[in-house]
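Notes for week 9. Today we move from apo structures to complexes. The key idea is that a small molecule is not decoration. When we ask for a structure prediction with 2-acetamido-2-deoxy-beta-D-glucopyranose present, the ligand SMILES becomes part of the input, just like the chain. The input block below holds both the sequence and the ligand string. Read it once before you look at the output, and try to guess where the molecule might sit.
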Amino acid sequence: MKAVFGLQILATVTAFVAASCPPHGPESRLQRVNRLTKVQPSRHIDDILSEWDLNNVTLAAVRAPPVNWPLPILNKNWDGVKFDINGTIDLGVSYVERAAQNGARLVAFPEVWFPGYPKGVINTDYPNSWLVKHAADYVNNSLVIGDNNWNKLAQAAVDNEIYLAVSVSERVKNHLYMTQLLIAPDGEILIYRHKIRPGGRERDLWTDGRLEDLVTVVTTPIGRIGMLSCAEHSYPEATFITQAQTEDIHIAAWPLTPPFGNYSLGYESSEVITALASVYANVGNTALILTSIGSSTIYPGGASPMWTRNEDSDPYDAVPIIHRDVNATSFPKKTYNANSKVSWGSYQNINQGFPDYIPDDMGTFIPWNEVTVESLYEMST
Ligand SMILES: *[C@@H]1O[C@H](CO)[C@@H](O)[C@H](O)[C@H]1NC(C)=O
Ligand SMILES: *[C@@H]1O[C@H](CO)[C@@H](O)[C@H](O)[C@H]1NC(C)=O
Ligand SMILES: *[C@@H]1O[C@H](CO)[C@@H](O)[C@H](O)[C@H]1NC(C)=O
Ligand SMILES: *[C@@H]1O[C@H](CO)[C@@H](O)[C@H](O)[C@H]1NC(C)=O
Ligand SMILES: *[C@@H]1O[C@H](CO)[C@@H](O)[C@H](O)[C@H]1NC(C)=O
């Protein structure tokens, strides 16, 4: 009797402690993002997934542009153009619905499709002539966690019972970030990350993420999913860290892929972009969704050359999205592979083999770069 009474006290104290503090110490960043995101209740994730055939999981990539995004694809003249995050969210939600109607279980959007990739920011003018005209408008069209548009994205995943991978320009207090989100079919945000190092002149607008923003691979019933953005696919520290976690599905968000065969374009060419994506799928032994305005490509896994891609000439209204079926029961769903090309062992080899003559020099590219919203407002005319 006494022992039972003691257990009851213990149970009461435990319940009190559990109710008054978070179960695992301070709230994590991801827990905070989920607390601030408001969605209508959905069915339990297990009930949703119990109806899916994992032998046939349809992946989808959007390749149509957002609202008010000047065409043709390489047009960087945005005189008189205003961003429209409200309209773009509504268009994006309609594409989520369309993908779901086509049977998709995961749909991915290009880089900062919300509110739109600012092509003109890539130029050679100092100060950045595009930002002088558009910086304030861009700040005002960036999303904030838990705002109406942010919640609409999470709700679209719930309403369509689909995994939704988006890239958004996000405002966090005095900074903008290039943020990637993976939202589950029950509305839970599984991945929230900032691009660690916006590339080139993107660094005039967005602030760098931190290394913690790379550790993103999550286990889901359809496989382990990770995300990177654009030039991150050419940063060894980014690809190594995600590939070492053995993804089954990798989401690669690029802003735009111009028509193939334009050899004046260098790193902006579709040849270079699809080469980076194809190598990533091969080295990482993963299915890969390259989502980009113009042409998107879905690689079914590893070294398979049998990818799915739209034609450059496909009109956006006829082909806004591409689809590809994969067999998710064949994915390893392992958190690491000690014998892969990208492993703890190969990481030790890099450390041991790194040439002694290279000085310990961080350079100017790697250190954290910030751009304040104040400075963006100040430069706007
Ligand atoms: C976007 O919608 C919000 C309401 O959700 C409204 O307050 C805001 O004015 C709208 N923005 C534009 C540019 O229409
Ligand atoms: C796989 O799912 C897609 C989308 O629902 C469907 O169009 C296709 O016919 C399915 N394939 C098989 C082999 O069942
Ligand atoms: C941006 O928002 C600020 C604060 O609401 C406002 O004062 C400013 O006029 C807006 N600028 C543009 C270009 O929309
Ligand atoms: C090729 O790229 C250049 C930019 O470097 C662009 O001006 C030109 O219009 C492009 N050509 C075609 C056929 O798209
Ligand atoms: C999917 O892969 C599993 C495991 O490799 C295999 O047993 C199954 O037959 C495959 N399903 C289809 C429809 O090919």
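Residues 1-21 have pLDDT under 50 and may be disordered.
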